Amino acid sequence: MELTREEESALKGENGETMQMAYRILVATGEATDAEKLVPIEWAHLSGVNYNTIGDAGEEFLSSISKDARVSVKTTLNPMGFDIDNVSNYKLDENFISKQLSIRNSYETMGVIPSFSCIPYEIFDIPKNGTQVAFAESNAAIHANSYDNLKTNKESAFSALASAIVGKSPYSSLRKEDSPNITIEMKVKNPNELSYGMLGFFAGKVGDTSVNISGLAEMDQRQCKAMCGGMGTSGTCAKFNFGEGDSNTEKIEFDEKEMQNVHDELNTSEKGDIITLGSPQLGLDEISDLTAKLKGRSFEKRCMVFLPRTVKEQAQKIGYISELERAGCEILSDCCTCLTPLICKDDVDAVTTNSIKGAFYLKNSNGVGVNLKSLKEIVEDETR
Q1: Which residues are in the Phosphomevalonate dehydratase large subunit-like domain (predicted)?
Q2: End-to-end Cα separation, the chain, in angstroms
Q3: pLDDT digits over 319-361, tens only?
């Protein structure tokens, strides 16, 4: 990989140990992905925030480098493990709370924006078409490449942090123009958000780095978001294009049978003890839709609603939050359904959700059963 004189100097440690470490990560990543060079980025979005995922080693590493590391570009953060406003309502041990707050403080010390959201594309302005970014959150990386016309690889927690510090990323893979070798034709009629999530999950399994998807009407952001969430959980695929692609691409159909196969893989329970909504976190449009669907109805069981703090603040001003709380919803900011310690198999046997991403992590990481339903079905079946 070709480096400039300044980059070689930083790699040798002439700009300090932290910058040297960041360049080592980027060079190793670049060599592993056949990158030609490093290119400037304008925005980094970091994972590696939840103490459940990075543990003591991650917390100690961040605490150590935050003494002198500073991000050089706009940098935002994935969700952490709890909402500080209501952490006392949950049975979290003091060690978890202390370590999670340490992680938060380390990132803030480095100049990272404490967004704690997996949907940065809904709460920040999108740069101009073709802008290079470095997104570690899988659904956000796919959304950036496929819907926002940005360019990012599916970054790791380490490579995204290194990119945030240096302000550059390896120029390889999806940062370049690519031609998918698979086209998936959507054959499911009248799809809902669950259908799009299952399409994404299927595409993530059969695709390589990118796929074409045909047979879709024009997608709105909520449908795209569901598909990105599903795709990000099941493989390495990090981009989809609309259309057939060229005549040499392999054609695969996603029909009712394939959709049922995905449903059977993830749906492991006939009912849930609780309901979770928000994986990826809910945006203002989804909060508005949920409020409208409830129409004075109330949930008959516990319903946890995950959303970014900025969305919660907007929704409060409009009156949505008070209506959702009236309906029995627990509103949680700064955290997400996925990998949260707020949902524990010691207390919960199964969870009802409309999220494919949430279903995957609830089943495989939290170890609870999953009952998959569309939002419409959840409101119809679980409220009175």
Answers
A1: 1-380
A2: 62
A3: 999 999 999 999 999 999 887 888 989 899 999 999 999 999 9
Q: Are 36 and 2 in contact (CB under 8 A)?
A: yes
Determine contact, residues 141/233, Cβ cutoff 8 Å.
Answer: no
> pLDDT digit string (tens) for 254-305?
999 999 999 999 999 999 999 999 999 999 999 999 999 999 999 999 999 9
**Does residue 170 sit in the same domain as residue 219?**
no
Both tokens assigned to 84: 């500080």
Other Cβ atoms less than 10 A from the Cβ of 144: the count is: 28
For 87, 222, 281, 356, the CA distances from 119, given in Å and listed in that order, are 22, 11, 7, 16
The rounded distance, in Å, linking the Cα atoms of 205 and 234 is 5
Q: In residues, how long is the chain? A: 384
User: What is the pTM (predicted TM-score) of this model?
Assistant: 0.96
Residue 124 sits in the same domain as residue 55:
yes
Residue (of 328, 276, 353) closest to 307 by Cα position: 276
Contacts of 87 (CB under 8 A, 6+ apart): 97
Query: CB–CB of 238/153 below 8 Å?
Result: yes
For residues 315 and 381, give the distance between their C-alpha atoms in angstroms, rounded to a whole number. 25
Residue 343 shares a structural domain with residue 279: yes
Residues 248, 278: one domain? no
Residues whose CB is less than 8 angstroms from the CB of residue 347 and which lie 6 or more positions away in sequence, other chains included: 91
